[in-house]
């Protein structure tokens, strides 16, 4: 059986959705569900209690620290890291995961295939992750071997991509990250503030992990003016052209349906 760790802050509605599905479809595969909560002010805690989850609280949140806290609180060898916005798909999701994990004691983690590009890459690499810093775990839905994690904690200082950094580190030590032919739905509607914050954290982590130099001031300003004055203008006319074509098609639909007595 498996422990599930879900990082959470004010995600009551999404949390209830995923918990209801987990407990309804996979209860025989799950040993415990742990909610790592970052001082939620909504009904998240009451929902977690309703589904008999273990709740641990984190005050100073980073993805790495929340993940480490969740795994440290887990009692199973294998831990599924899950977002409140991710839902495992398929009756045999966990059973096939266990079967794969038990094939070798060198498997540090499992990434679940979530796109055609991911699937083609997995086929090419015999379902082993070959470039972990780029294609490693996605902790929105991924399994970690706690016995390997004990000596390989997630980086708690990174603002983002702590899962990719961890994958790179354990693979360099001789462990494996697998792509598994199972999948999940991921659904989230981010507001502008959330999108901007994600953009900032993704870029900071990228340049730190790849040891790259960031753009100079002149390049940043030029890219801004190119976006505002050129790219946005081009996109506007493309959009307007598309809308005109849709308008034409609507009149064609109206004409056709009118001939069949289905339009005013």
Number of strands: 9
Low-confidence stretches: none
* CA-based shape: globular
- What string, H for helix and E for strand, traces the elements in order? EHEHEHEEHEHHEHHEEHH
Total count of helical runs of at least 4 residues: 10
Q: Mind sketching the topology for me?
A:
Elements (H helix, E strand, L loop, with lengths): L1 E7 L3 H14 L4 E8 L6 H7 L3 E4 L5 H10 L5 E6 L2 E4 L3 H9 L5 E6 L3 H9 L7 H4 L5 E5 H4 L12 H11 L3 E5 L2 E4 L5 H18 L7 H43 L5
Parallel strand pairs: 1-2, 1-4, 2-3, 6-8
Antiparallel strand pairs: 4-7, 5-9, 6-7
Report on this model:
The chain is α/β, with parallel strands linked by helices. A seven-stranded mixed beta sheet has the order 3-2-1-4-7-6-8, sandwiched between helices. Strands 5-9 form a two-stranded antiparallel sheet. Helix 1 packs parallel to helix 2. The longest helix is centred in the last third of the chain and has 43 residues. It starts with a strand and ends in a 5-residue tail after the last helix. The mean pLDDT is 92.
């Amino acid at each position: 059986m498996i422990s599930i760790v879900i990082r959470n802050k004010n995600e009551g509605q999404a949390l209830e959705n995923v918990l209801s599905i987990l407990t309804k479809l996979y209860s025989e595969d799950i040993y415990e569900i742990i909610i790592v909560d970052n001082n939620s002010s909504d009904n998240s805690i009451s929902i977690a209690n309703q589904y008999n989850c273990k709740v641990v609280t984190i005050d100073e949140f980073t993805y790495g620290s929340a993940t480490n806290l969740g795994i440290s609180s887990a009692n199973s060898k294998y831990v599924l890291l899950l977002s409140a916005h991710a839902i495992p798909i398929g009756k045999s999701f966990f059973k096939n995961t266990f079967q794969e994990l038990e094939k070798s004691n060198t498997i540090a983690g499992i990434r679940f295939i979530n796109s055609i590009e991911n699937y083609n890459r997995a086929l090419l690499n015999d379902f082993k992750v070959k470039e972990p810093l780029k294609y490693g775990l996605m902790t929105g839905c991924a399994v970690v071997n706690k016995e390997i994690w004990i000596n390989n904690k997630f980086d708690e200082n990174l603002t983002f991509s702590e899962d990719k950094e961890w994958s790179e580190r354990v693979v360099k030590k001789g462990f494996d990250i697998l792509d598994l032919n199972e999948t999940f739905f991921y659904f989230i509607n981010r507001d502008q503030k959330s999108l901007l914050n994600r953009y900032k954290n993704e870029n900071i982590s990228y340049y730190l992990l790849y040891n790259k130099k960031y753009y100079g001031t002149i390049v940043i300003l030029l890219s801004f003016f190119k976006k505002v004055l050129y790219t946005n203008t081009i996109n506007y006319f493309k959009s307007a052209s598309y809308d005109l074509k849709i308008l034409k098609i609507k009149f064609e639909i109206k004409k056709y349906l009118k001939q069949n007595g289905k339009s005013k």
